[in-house]
Amino acid sequence: MSKAKAVTGAPSPIASQIRLGEWLATVRERHGFVQRDGAEFLKTDAQKLSRWERGMHPMPAHDFLALVVRYGAVEDLFKLLGTWERATRVGAGGAAAGGGEGGRRVG
Question: What is the model's pTM?
Answer without folding.
Answer: 0.68
